[in-house]
Amino acid sequence: MPSAKEPYRLEGRTALIAGPTNELSRKIAATFTAAGARVAQALIGLPVSAEMKAAVEAAEILVLQTVWDDGSNLAAADDSASYQSLSHQLVELPRTLIASAAPAMRRRHWGRVVFVAIGEVAAPAVIAARSAQSALMQAEARCLAGDGITLNMVTSPCWHDAPNGERMAAIAAAVLYFASDESAFLTGQTLHLRA
Questions:
Q1: N or C end of the chain: which has fewer CB within 10 A?
Q2: Domains of the chain (ranges plus CATH)?
Q3: CB-CB contact of 116 with 97 (8 Å)
Q4: pLDDT tens digits along 121-172
Q5: CA 158 and chain centroid, separation
Q6: How crowded is the C-beta side of 99, counted as CA atoms within 13 Å?
Q7: How far apart are alpha carbons 150 and 144 in whole angstroms?
Q8: Residue 131, C-beta contacts closer than 8 angstroms, at least 6 positions apart
Q9: How do strand 149-156 and strand 190-192 relate by DSSP bridges?
Q10: Residue 52 has pLDDT above 60, yes or no
């Protein structure tokens, strides 16, 4: 009798972690690699180069990471320039990357997009940009659900109040869950990890 498949496996899947290369992205990459995925990391900006566009198109799993280790410089920001800058990073870039990844994911009838939003800053510009990012995720999730593509989000406060290793392991585990077959029934959802 065949043995049951081990849960949360990504054998043969190709994942791209788009965002800063830092301790968290390395933890997510290590977690994905241990689950059997081929993983690449890239800091991608607009306009997206042809090389980066090809990497995005090849990804079956696209992780969109936005992390603030220190929001003190943003806490005082409450102007249209700050919002435009944040909107560019949190909304325009993810929308462009999803548009690049979606056609190939549709052809495969399988794809995962996971937003990773770390850090809480109580500034109006930040709150507005994060809300727009969440709305983008939910809108794209509705549009792509019929094609076997899910879009979900993992959020967490900054990790300065807990051991880095413990918090980052929890974030990586949540991202792995949303990237796996076990979460195929979930889309447009946000998982808030406790402080």
A1: N
A2: 14-192 (3.40.50.720)
A3: no
A4: 777 888 888 999 999 999 999 999 999 999 999 999 875 655 578 889 999 9
A5: 16
A6: 8
A7: 7
A8: none
A9: parallel
A10: yes
1 vs 161, residue with greater confidence = 161
Question: Tokens at residue 190, please?
Answer: 């946000």
Q: Report the alpha-carbon distance of residue 176 to residue 89 in Å, rounded.
A: 23
Q: For 72-123, how does the pLDDT look when each residue is reduced to its tens digit (9 = 90+)?
A: 455 455 667 778 888 888 999 999 999 999 999 999 999 999 999 987 777 7
State both tokens at 106.
Answer: 């549709």
Q: How many residues does the chain have?
A: 195
What is the C-alpha separation between 53 and 45, in angstroms, rounded? 11
